[in-house]
Design goal:
Length: 91
């Protein structure tokens, strides 16, 4: 697959992406909370990713812990998805 222009983030938008020389994962948080009250955080390629109307972009991070920290600014209660963020999954 060749590089496409679908990702419109620039180096200024995501500091660190070029310094590290690796593309970081994009993380999303679900709008609808799960039964226990947490909003689940997913990587952009997760098979359990909520549909477009039920997710918010959190940002680009190289680990789920940083993504959860940022997601907490959107929702007080967040949790990593068991499927794509097992190390951050508590519920
Ligand atoms: Zn997931």
């Amino acid at each position: 697959m060749t590089r496409t222009a679908t990702l419109v983030l620039s180096a200024q938008d995501v500091p660190g992406i070029l310094e590290r020389g690796v593309a970081m994962e994009l993380y999303y948080v679900s709008v609808n909370a799960q039964k226990t009250g947490e909003h689940e955080v997913h990587t952009w390629l997760c098979a359990s990713m909520p549909n477009v109307s039920n997710r918010l972009l959190v940002g680009s991070f190289d680990n789920c812990k940083d993504a959860l920290k940022a997601a907490k600014k959107i929702y007080a209660q967040v949790d990593g998805c068991a499927r794509c963020c097992p190390e951050c999954n508590k519920r």
